[in-house]
Design brief:
The structure is a homotetramer of 148-residue chains.
Chain A: H1 13-23, H2 25-28, E1 34-40, E2 43-48, E3 55-56, E4 60-61, H3 63-82, E5 90-98, E6 107-116, E7 120-129, E8 135-144
Antiparallel strand pairs in A: 1-2, 2-6, 3-4, 5-8, 6-7, 7-8
């Protein structure tokens, strides 16, 4: 995350994880499924751990699993920026392109907010296989933000 | 499904369900999660049964659950049209707009193929709550078809 | 437009055309380019007249021309519903699938609003060649509405 | 364009411009509208010159103009990579998010191909105002490539 501005994020990774676990424990499975690895500077890096639920026959990661990780990545980047209010942000649009069939490994999402307005945030998400350099999916998503 | 052409679909609902259960039993949970209600005439109607996995705190259906149903709906419409070869079709793009927070009930997808070419199929999917008339999500999706 | 509710639209086709010509005369070319054929009931039918500006070598309609017509169609459907305030609505997202190369003829957009909320409207747009029954493009679009 | 691989592009900017002018002179207006500034390494940088056709009342750049530039940017990146065959590539999908109303200035598109397969290419396009650092639009697009 080379372009991260120097301004400190409103919340640390540990604080965001705690907030999400308090409100939506099913989402991260308390670290069993989703993990926040970095957040701040209008970006986030999130991981979906390999688990049976996300596998398809033939040993590939399912489309809904990649969708979930993309959706999670932008949400985390928003919460890091605007704090607890971001918990109530909701997805209004998500567009995802599947680029390659990913083998059965952890997948990582690199998310960058390209807009953070008063009412709407827009993010761009690149998804990679753990240890791989080719992108396996690319998404953009719009969130509606709760009023201040 | 008022506009269904009179031509019979290549496969019946029972045959499509059997094919999918044979190849991807996790997807439908053998009827526990996903159910095909109608297919043919470049359309399908599919149902996602209410289940704990798909709920969010506050009693709404999760975004990934709606994504999964949309993705399933177009796949079923393709298989009805081109037969077993359609099992190998893969999602290349899915764009979804979330229109309202759905209460905890079954959701239904009405899918219509707007293109069925040699290499690509494009579908439009409307998602409704069981018993409701307002759309809760709208999606479009492109599938890449395996060669004949 | 079979599903049009019986409630009268807020503005007639003539009134919408007049409003648009007053604010954005370049868009319709005062009927030379874009024509509103019907509006109301959360729907619209709009036409892009064949003109040199919209042609590509080989005699097909350009992608930007189809984009423009889709964008226009949803805007007209919004104005019909919410009146002059709709003139200030702005596109936040437009997703378009090109399904076939259209020959050099007028093209028609059939637009349906799938959501009309306080802040956002979402529409689905089908584009056909004049006199043809196959869809040549399909779009969905989100508009941000000005406050009341 | 910091991540450009060191491999030389198949075609230079001058060669791509010449090819496009030979096949689609209306598109660039022979440099009056669209200009290719850099291409290669699966990327491109393209410019839309300010011109009356692209302006909206109030002095903003029109949505279709931004769409056209995004569509042009990915096409140029493809041609640089696969050569003259890329001239026949066609847009199958374009999804664009409008992030801010751009003032009346030149706009620049930074395009990156995130996939270049046998049949499909997918690109991500960031659009900026000349001299500005905020993104005004963000797009992703899929092109269908002609057979070898």
């Amino acid at each position: 995350m080379s372009d991260v501005p120097t301004q400190a994020p409103l919340l640390s990774v540990a604080q965001i994880t705690e907030l999400i676990d308090a409100h939506f424990p099913h989402m991260t499975g308390r670290g069993k499924y989703m993990v926040i690895e970095a957040a701040g500077g209008r970006q986030s890096r999130t991981r979906l751990r390999l688990n049976e639920r996300n596998l398809r026959p033939g040993g590939t990661i399912s489309g809904p699993a990649m969708f979930s990780l993309a959706d999670f990545g932008i949400w985390v980047a928003i919460i890091a920026e605007i704090g607890e209010r971001g918990i109530g942000a909701v997805t209004t649009n998500l567009n995802i392109n599947f680029l390659a069939k990913p083998e059965a490994r952890d997948i990582l999402a690199h998310t960058k907010l390209v807009k953070l307005g008063k009412r709407l945030a827009v993010g761009e998400i690149e998804i990679y296989l753990e240890g791989g350099s080719d992108m396996v999916a690319h998404a953009t998503s719009t969130y509606s933000l709760p009023p201040k």
